[in-house]
Amino acid sequence: MTLLEEAAAGKSGKPEKRERLGGKVVALVLVLLVALVAGGYAAAHQVAGDKVPLGTTVSGVDIGGMSRADAIAELQEAFAARGAEPIRVEVAGPSTGSGTRGADVRPDEIGLAIDYAATVDAAGAEDSWSPGRQWDYFTGGDDLDAVVDVDDSLLSARLAELSEGLGVPPKNGRVEFEDGRVSVVDPVPGEAVDTEAAGEALTAAYLDGDDSVELTVTEAEADIDDADVQEALNGFANPAMASAVTLVFGRSEVRLQPSQYSDALAMVPEDGELVPQIDERKITRLVEGATSSGEPVDATVELVDGEPKVIPAKPGVEFEPDDVVAVFTDLLSAPEGERTGKVEATVREADFTTKEARALGIKRKVSGFTTYYPHADYRNTNIGRAAELINGTILEPGETFSLNDTVGERTAENGFTIGYVISNGVLVQDYGGGVSQMATTTFNAMFFAGLEDVEHKPHSFYIDRYPEGREATVAWPDLDLQFRNDTDYGVLIHATVTPSTYSTQGVVTVEMYSTKVWDIESITSERYNYRAPATRHLTTPDCEPFTGYSGFDVDVTRVFREHGEDAVHHTEEFHTAYTAADTVVCGRPPKQD
């Protein structure tokens, strides 16, 4: 190494040592500064803690620098007693002049109170290491209003008392349901105390320690206005009344028309709008009326206002009312074509369904016949009872009617009484006397309906209140009236009796309802082959005297024409031979000389 190189090397070594020493000093200084700042920040947090920022006041009460607990206690001491101190409230009528009302209102009566914890929290009392929190504590103090709660319902009720007679309260718009229709009651503006403004005024008086407040009745809109009414119509009322809803229970349906369920619906005001309300009990009763809680009920056909009507089957259904109401409610807002819903239930179906009843085609009266009888109490009883048992009978296609099977044995237990009957050509007393009047009337209704005669027997001798050759008698159990429904449609038999009186005859009417198949004409021949009556002397205890008359033969032709046609389709002959009605004399015959 040269002298110059050594000299150069010796000069450069001293500055490098000094640089290393300077770096250590800077690091040491930085560490000391960080320690000082950290210590100061910790000290600042220790000072602030959960205290309210310095300089803070709440509604005039200084709570700055206080801990959260102390601040709450300070506010309670300042305001707690005010809840029971009355504030004089004066309410003046509108500008037209309708007087003034005044009363003392205690803040606690209307639920007016300070939420102390929320107030102190809102003032900034919190324990946090956040730099912003430390900054706010030392610099963020402010004058704040206390957090106050008011019970709006209590306030509104109290204001209503104070303003009674001052101005006219507004009237809410309404949506109403009746007879399957929707009606609207328009809202009406009025004059009332502004509840929100009154709440603010009372709150200010409470916080400021004022002992009086002046309020004024001013123009007020109804809570439920035109827009709310229209929204209720569009969202619920109109869809609900648009068409029927159908609830499905198993294979059975319960169809509810708007006219049936409208009185179970209502719309009530809630939070400034109209909301639907459904009477669950009414809906449940409607469904219960269309179903059976026990055994299912078969469909049938009955006369309603003189016209045949299918009475739907009722399935035996067990359901939870809540399930029914839930499905029903959903369907009310559904569009047309989607208003059918299934209800979870235990279902037992009817044997004869509504569909099957409609398929019978029982649509109109196809025949009817009326006979009359002289007064007798036993006739009223027996004919009336027979009519009661026959009425409502439905013959399905191919089914045969039997009067004896339908009416049953004529006994006291079955509702019959003792009357006169014909036995062996003479009158005797027995249960069911007069029932042949019902047999004759029913036979003629069958005759003109064009049904098939299976079994009938005319009386042994002619009774002049019946059409000759077109009458029938019955006796339990061997002598019956039977006919078959040989059409493609069901037949409903309707039987009625108007009882006789001492001054009026009894009236028996039998009508048949179905689909018209035949137009029937009856042609009766002249009487022929007369037979003179004999005289009989009877000595039995039950002998009834009788004045006889002649017997004769007669022929009746039933002419069938297809309904609406003139041409004869076919005919049917009925030949009847009446025996002479013997004269009956009670007692021994006179001795022959």
From TrEMBL:
<keyword id="KW-0472">Membrane</keyword>
<dbReference type="Pfam" id="PF04294">
    <property type="entry name" value="VanW"/>
</dbReference>
<dbReference type="InterPro" id="IPR052913">
    <property type="entry name" value="Glycopeptide_resist_protein"/>
</dbReference>
<dbReference type="Pfam" id="PF12229">
    <property type="entry name" value="PG_binding_4"/>
</dbReference>
<dbReference type="InterPro" id="IPR007391">
    <property type="entry name" value="Vancomycin_resist_VanW"/>
</dbReference>
<keyword id="KW-0812">Transmembrane</keyword>
<keyword id="KW-1133">Transmembrane helix</keyword>
<feature type="transmembrane region" description="Helical">
    <location>
        <begin position="21"/>
        <end position="44"/>
    </location>
</feature>
<feature type="domain" description="YoaR-like putative peptidoglycan binding">
    <location>
        <begin position="105"/>
        <end position="210"/>
    </location>
</feature>
<dbReference type="InterPro" id="IPR022029">
    <property type="entry name" value="YoaR-like_PG-bd"/>
</dbReference>
<protein>
    <submittedName>
        <fullName>VanW family protein</fullName>
    </submittedName>
</protein>
